[in-house]
Specification:
This protein has 469 residues and is α+β, with helices and mostly antiparallel strands. It is 34% helix and 21% strand. The strands form six sheets. A five-stranded antiparallel sheet has the order 5-6-10-8-9. Strands 15-12-14-13-19 form a five-stranded antiparallel sheet, with helices on both faces. Strand 5 and strand 6 form a beta hairpin. It is globular, with a radius of gyration of 23 Å. The protein binds flavin-adenine dinucleotide. Flavin-adenine dinucleotide (FAD) binds next to strand 3, helix 5 and strand 10.
Length: 469
């Protein structure tokens, strides 16, 4: 393959300075491998410090035919933040873009650079009694969360990232900067341009800044692990929690027995809340309020009343109250626990809430019939219809599952999901090399047509990002 623009390294060095262009294999290794999937070879890694430098880099690459892959914290799970194997793509890391942090207390919003990560953002907000209510067991960057329209455990209550972005600054593939950082909470004056950059994996532009909606920090949290009488009663349990706890219900996370066992096995220091054998499925129910106990609101008491009603109505078989730290500790240990068992085939799906259990059952039946060796370790954001229907290839069977076989398994399950259950094959991880072909098989043709039109217009040579719609 001919190498576009042999002078690219010198050009990028002149924009960001020598120290911020990496070209040694060791220096570039962590930027070239994805968290779960994808690993390639970068031509260079460039780390700009501000929007003007991002614009100058894109302008140069656009004019000289150089492919660019934007990268935030590199926690994405669809292989879209890392270069392919050709060694021709430049990774543009946004990690140094942290110069701006303007808190507007009156607007309950922050305007910040895209390189801020979730943990540091929430640490900084703590002193002001505020938080950004996206909960993910990783610490992604603001730009990456916007590009993937991240979800997390509290979408049920607060919505996904799309619902919490008030404005975006972005650099288009040719280096043009577009910005609306006014922080308006409503605006009905025509097209909402920021939506172009939310959930589109950097394919239409690089997010360099944003205005985020903030919320008063929770001052009370009550949690329990609840065992539904059987999987058919999970929908009734969700309805009961919403009816009885109203807007205080902030998470409703399903954890199947194999997923819980994997977490406990992987981190023996975690306490098994059930003492002995774990149930087939349990639900982490969380209530949260920004109102303190002095108001008379007592969330622990409210949760107890919800659980009593659940026992009385036959929806709940068992319930174990526990501290938020302990129960979320278990929930957040699952991903690592599954990796400890073997190679993970992650399916990040969403369905209308009432259909999750039926999909799990149908997919489980199909898998037991066709691939009985795969471990089914589902868990996820059941309260918003999300499910990480994850499969694990046991270590001693790894060679029996080459990539084409894994791809055929995904194709069969996504077909079932989309055609029989009306679900989505990417609930919150976005689109990347791992799932692009399924998107092309199953997405609405009109949506695909418009995506291609926009991409062709903004980036006719297809130089930005890993996704060609
Ligand atoms: C343990 C673990 C748990 C997770 N749990 C969840 C979960 O519950 N919910 C959830 O939604 N996600 C979850 N994720 C996935 C991941 O954290 C999100 O996809 C996250 O939003 C990615 O952000 P990032 O900064 O790491 O982006 P990256 O991984 O660096 O990039 C992701 C995509 O965004 C693009 N991109 C990155 N920065 C920019 C930018 N500034 N402008 C334009 N494009 C950009 C990249 O090109 C790529 O397409 C989890 C990941 C891990 C490792």
């Amino acid at each position: 393959m001919p190498v576009a623009d042999p002078g690219v390294a010198a050009a990028l060095r002149s924009i960001v300075g020598d120290r911020h262009v990496l070209d040694g294999p060791d220096d570039m290794a962590s930027y070239a491998n994805g968290f779960r999937y994808g690993g390639g070879r970068a031509r260079l890694v460039v780390l700009p410090a501000d929007t003007a430098q991002v614009a100058a880099i894109l302008r140069h690459c656009h004019l000289n035919g150089v492919q660019v892959v934007p990268q935030g914290a590199n926690t994405g799970l669809v292989g879209a933040s890392v270069p392919d194997a050709t060694g021709t793509q430049v990774v543009l890391s946004l990690r140094r873009l942290t110069g701006r942090f303007d808190l507007d207390r009156a607007n309950r919003a922050v305007t910040l650079s895209a390189g801020w990560d979730l943990d540091r953002l929430n640490e900084r907000l703590e002193a002001n009694g505020l938080w950004f209510p996206v909960d993910i067991s990783a610490s992604p960057s603001v730009g990456g969360m916007i590009a993937t329209n991240a979800g997390g455990s509290r979408v049920l209550r607060y919505g996904d990232v799309r619902h919490n972005v008030l404005g975006v600054e972005a650099v288009l593939p040719d280096g043009t900067v577009t910005a609306d950082l006014r922080g308006l909470r409503k605006n009905s004056a025509g097209l909402d341009l920021k939506q172009l950059f939310i959930g589109t994996g950097g394919s239409f532009g690089i997010v360099t800044g944003a205005v985020l909606n903030l919320l008063p920090r929770p001052r009370q949290t009550a949690t329990a692990l609840v065992v539904p009488r059987d999987s058919r009663t999970v929908n009734d349990l969700l309805t009961l929690c919403e009816d009885q706890a109203g807007e205080f219900l902030s998470a409703f996370e399903s954890i199947t027995g194999p997923a819980l066992s994997a977490a406990l096995h992987h981190r023996p220091q975690l306490r098994n809340p059930f003492g002995g054998p774990v149930p087939d499925e349990c639900i982490l129910v969380e209530l949260m309020s920004a109102t303190g106990g002095e108001s008379g609101l007592n969330l622990d008491a409210l949760l107890m009343r919800v659980l009593e009603q659940g026992y009385d109505s036959g929806v709940i078989a068992d319930a174990v109250p526990g501290s938020p730290a302990d129960l979320w500790g278990l929930r957040h240990a699952i991903s690592e626990g599954l990796r400890g068992l073997g190679r993970v085939i992650g399916l990040d799906v969403s369905l209308p809430r009432g259909r999750v259990t039926d999909f799990r059952r149908a997919a489980g039946d199909w898998l037991r019939g066709h691939h009985p060796d795969l471990l089914i370790c589902g868990f996820g954001h059941r309260g918003d219809g999300g499910d990480h229907f994850n499969l694990v290839i046991p270590k001693d069977r790894d060679t029996d599952f080459p990539p084409e076989k894994v791809s055929a398994i995904r194709q069969a399950l996504y077909r079932l999901l989309v055609e029989d259950f009306g679900g989505s094959y990417s609930a919150e991880h976005g689109i990347g090399p791992v799932n692009l072909s399924f998107h092309q098989s199953f997405a609405d043709p009109v949506q695909q047509h418009f995506s291609r039109l926009i991409q062709r217009h903004l980036d006719p040579d297809g130089l930005l990002g890993r996704v060609r719609w």
